[in-house]
Write a structure and sequence with these properties.
Strand content of chain A: under 5%
Number of helices of chain B: 14
Number of helices of chain A: 12
Largest sheet of chain B: none
Radius of gyration of chain A: 25 Å
Number of strands of chain A: 0
Largest interface: A-B, 109 and 110 residues
Distance between the termini of chain B: 20 Å
Order of helices and strands of chain B: HHHHHHHHHHHHHH
Helix content of chain B: over 70%
Strand content of chain B: under 5%
Number of strands of chain B: 0
Structural class of chain A: mainly alpha
Oligomer: heterodimer
Largest sheet of chain A: none
Chain lengths: 299, 298
């Protein structure tokens, strides 16, 4: 896709030759359309930013009613927060779960993605469907039976259980993100390496792996961001405080809104947001924003 | 092709395929399929641990109790309008943006914000911003558009709004991918043959994009149908937004009845997969029609 194409280049407005069409001034209809487009997207984005800002401002405010800004600012919601939540534990749990899930998913998903992208074999279609199924099923549908089983196996409230349940959507996700990257690597490179005497393993580690590194990075970074913000599945298994992640603790605070002041909940939200945002900033060094959305082949 | 003739014969290729696939396959079987079967079996029993002979008690209880079974229609009332609305907004916007626009990188970066924040965070920030005394109502009142603050959260509308904010970027970016993949020559040809912009959109672009739009609909519908944190945080989980996932969660964890909760979860899965199957079936018929009309560019 072209990026930052000037608007005038799009205007093949009339069925004349392209050269003449490009030199025409911007037609009024096109101008109105651009205006509507930027206003709609702008309205959405402005509200989004304002939404996030209110949370940040409120977390530093004393009390905030009917005014544009809180009358006084304070830090004491954050001191309350550190007193009531073991933030180091929550943060540690979140990172352990996200990293362990992502790395396992990559290790398991990469060979599978390689086979699905390269080989033709019987049962390929049903296998692809099997890997697609966890992505097409809502998390709570399989989450409840899986969590019941995990709790029954005495793994409820353990990080291992949380990692296990989070792997269900992430393994297929990694496979489908990796497949197009593997398809791009020319198979004749592998054949050449084999013909020059390299073994299967050597060809894989010296030819295929280096060429797929961008794909592994993309899949890894996206999986990391996803598990970091994952809520439902972790919530079902993290039955004790010791295995909670940031998102689950935030939900716990928010759903018990009557008990906790909203500034307290919002201070927690700010901590959570700082973490996800910094992760996303790092992620954007490796992937384009549009890659956050998986595209299933349009056939 | 040259590539195929070059590749050397591989004697153990079947075995290799199997070995490479095995880890992922075993994992999916162990953590997805097996628990699913366990859940199916559990839903056919009663009691906390599910002892005794198999019975349909949980399913008959679900379908005969109006309080429980009504959540099916409630879920549809929550999921369907917002899914259609999101598509309705996304398609024209993506159509406009299909050849790239100014500030594209900036816009797409901001758009992924709700995707990365997660649904709990989106709902939590809505409570402040769209609340009675939030900035949104303050702004509308100060311009004089409304007298009384609008009630935008803790009701059906709050959930619709949360789902829209959460999923619009996803649907928009996905449809943008499909639309920008359509060969621009087809559009140019249609215009050259005298069709208007609107007619070109309706007769050329839309038929080619419909399979992609159908996929976007499915993924969006699946997400909206299983709404959980937003339904509790910005909805009214006792009546207006008493969706299936809330009922499944309550039965399992609040009433300590995992068999009933699992039965509700599985029912939800079956309904949702039926809808997806219907859409995909329609899509396959459409796709056949579209290929007759001409190829699709890279």
């Amino acid at each position: 896709m072209q990026q930052n194409t000037p608007l005038t280049a799009n205007v093949s407005a009339l069925p004349t030759t392209p050269a003449r069409a490009a030199r025409r001034p911007l037609p009024i209809g096109r101008l109105i359309l651009s205006l509507v487009f930027y206003l709609t997207i702008g309205f959405f984005l402005v509200n989004l930013i304002a939404m996030v800002s209110t949370v940040v401002i409120d977390s530093f405010g004393t009390s905030w009613f009917k005014t544009a800004l809180p009358p006084e600012f304070t830090l004491h919601w954050y001191t309350d927060l550190t007193a009531e939540h073991d933030l180091t534990l929550l943060l540690g749990n979140t990172f352990i779960v996200a990293l362990a899930t992502t790395l396992t998913a990559l290790a398991v998903g990469f060979p599978a993605a390689y086979v699905l992208a390269r080989k033709q074999f019987r049962l390929k279609a049903p296998l692809t469907l099997l890997f697609l199924l966890p992505m097409l099923t809502p998390p709570l549908v399989y989450g409840i039976p899986v969590a019941t089983l995990i709790i029954r196996l005495a793994l409820g409230g353990t990080l291992f259980g949380v990692i296990l349940i989070n792997m269900i959507p992430i393994v297929p996700f990694v496979i489908f993100v990796l497949m197009p990257f593997i398809e791009q690597v020319d198979p004749s490179l592998e054949s050449a390496s084999r013909m020059l005497g390299a073994g299967r393993f050597r060809t894989f580690t010296r030819i295929v792996l280096p060429l797929v590194v961008p794909g592994l990075l993309t899949a890894g970074v996206l999986a990391l961001v996803r598990t970091f913000a994952a809520f439902e599945l972790t919530y079902l298994v993290a039955t004790t405080g010791g295995s909670q992640t940031l998102a689950v603790a935030l939900y716990g605070d928010a759903s018990g809104a009557g008990i906790r002041p909203h500034q307290f909940v919002n201070a927690m939200a700010v901590i959570y947001m700082l973490m996800t945002m910094s992760l996303v900033v790092v992620a954007l060094f490796f992937v384009k924003p549009t890659q956050f959305v998986v595209r299933i082949k349009n056939r | 092709m040259l590539k195929t003739t070059l590749s050397a014969p591989r004697p153990r290729t079947g075995l290799e395929t199997l070995v490479l696939l095995l880890p992922a396959l075993l994992l999916v079987l162990a953590i997805f399929i097996a628990p699913f079967l366990f859940g199916l079996n559990l839903s056919l029993h009663t009691g906390y641990r599910g002892e005794g002979a198999a019975t349909l008690t949980n399913y008959t209880q679900f379908f005969s109790d109006p309080y429980l079974v009504d959540s099916i229609s409630i879920t549809f009332q929550v999921a369907l309008p917002v899914t259609l609305f999101t598509l309705f907004i996304s398609v024209p916007l993506a159509y406009f943006m299909r050849r790239g626009i100014r500030f594209e990188r900036g816009i797409t970066t901001l758009l992924i914000l709700p995707l990365t924040l997660g649904n709990v965070m989106v709902a939590e920030s809505m409570l402040m911003y769209f609340g009675r005394q939030g900035w949104f109502n303050q702004a509308l009142q100060s311009v004089g558009l409304i007298r009384q603050p609008l009630v935008l959260v803790h009701n059906w509308f709050g959930v619709e709004l949360a789902l829209f904010i959460q999923n619009f970027p996803f649907v928009f970016l996905m449809i943008l991918g499909y639309l920008s993949g359509i060969n621009p020559d087809l559009e140019r040809a249609s215009r050259m043959l005298g069709a208007s912009q609107w007619r070109t959109f309706r007769r050329v672009i839309l038929p080619l994009a419909l399979p992609g739009i159908a996929i976007a609909f499915c993924l969006n519908f699946v997400a909206n149908f299983s709404v959980f944190p937003s339904a509790v945080l910005v909805g009214r989980p006792d009546d207006q937004t008493r969706v299936l996932s809330v009922m499944a969660w309550r039965s399992t964890y609040e009433q300590n009845n995992p068999p009933l909760g699992t039965a509700i979860a599985l029912t939800m899965g079956v309904i949702e997969l039926l809808v997806v199957a219907c859409v995909l079936w329609g899509r396959s018929r459409l796709a056949r029609g579209a290929t007759l009309g001409g190829g699709k560019g890279a």
